[in-house]
Specification:
Pfam families: Rhodanese, UPF0176_N. By secondary structure, the protein is α/β, with parallel strands linked by helices. The protein contains 7 helices and 15 strands.
């Protein structure tokens, strides 16, 4: 069976978002589509998997709402099911920055296409920042980008307050997986007084899809919030897996000894299982952004 995964989002006022939950879930289930879609007053954010016809049907259903008529997905072939079931969730924010007054539908930074991104981030006057979480950055990022070492997107404003100054950092370029986090971050940074704020249109996924490998400045793989775990250039399936204990991506898990099944191989855990809950279980699980 041919199958694809589609990621999409849009910041738009959806006062009736709660009313859309059940009809959307029912339609997705009728199409045998699996995935996660978040609905909030500020918009929609989702990743779904199914046959090309089924995914197209869901996207057309969403676009039938005039507020979502220009919804633009990023689509990649994915033969292995990316999700176990379909979920439509109601949220306070479709991506949680923790500052409710930020409104990306009012203003955002300057979009930069994947084709023009290399020129921007190689400009020595531009400060390039990866807005993703530490476990995502660890498996891949753009050459020369700053890693803010955040554990949650909520931590990003605090990083900016302590490390960036609108009077010094005159040009700032942000990027993230699909574009949603950096879009919201640019809205907040403009409100915080930064004058020139740019963000990668379509995110890393669009860059990996459209920029030839010979021209790419991306290094490593890109973490995704589904069972693919990570993708690489051309949106091909990556090599990473998820540690079954701490939930973080690992490149090559060492085999577990048959004679010592309590041994775990994840470098983030580095403990041996005991009858008590191991320390690694307290590590924050990667969550859908």
């Amino acid at each position: 069976m041919s199958a694809v995964v589609a990621t999409f989002y849009k910041f738009v006022r959806l006062a009736d978002f709660a009313e859309k939950q059940q009809p959307l879930l029912t339609f997705c289930q009728e199409q045998a589509v699996k995935g996660t879609i978040l609905l909030a007053a500020e918009g929609i954010n989702g990743t779904i998997w199914g046959t090309p016809q089924a995914v197209t049907a869901v996207l057309d259903w969403l676009r039938s709402d005039l507020r979502l008529h220009d919804l633009v997905p990023k689509i990649a072939n994915c033969q292995v099911s990316a999700f176990e079931r379909m979920k439509v969730r109601l949220k306070q924010e479709i991506v949680t920055l923790g500052i409710p007054e930020v409104d990306p539908s009012h203003q955002v930074g300057t979009y930069v296409s994947p084709q023009n991104w290399n020129d921007l981030i190689t400009d020595p006057d531009v400060t390039v920042i990866d807005t993703r979480n530490d476990y995502e950055v660890n498996i891949g990022s753009f050459e020369g980008a700053i890693d803010p070492q955040t554990q949650s997107f909520r931590d990003f404003p605090e990083y900016v307050r302590h490390h960036l100054d609108p009077a010094i950092h005159l040009k700032v370029a942000l990027f993230c997986t699909g574009g949603i986090r950096c879009e919201k971050a640019t809205a907040w940074m403009l409100e915080a007084g930064f004058k020139e704020v740019y963000h990668l249109q379509g995110g890393i996924l669009k860059y990996l899809e459209e920029v030839p490998a010979a021209e790419s400045l991306w290094q490593g793989e890109c973490f995704v919030f589904d069972q693919r775990v990570a993708v690489q250039q051309g949106l091909k399936l990556g090599s990473h897996q998820i540690c079954r204990r701490c939930g973080r991506p690992i490149a090559q898990p060492d085999p577990i000894s048959e004679t010592d099944a309590a041994t775990i191989s994840c470098p983030h855990c580095e403990v041996r299982v005991t009858p008590q809950p191991p320390a690694c279980q307290s590590v924050r699980q990667p969550q859908y952004p």
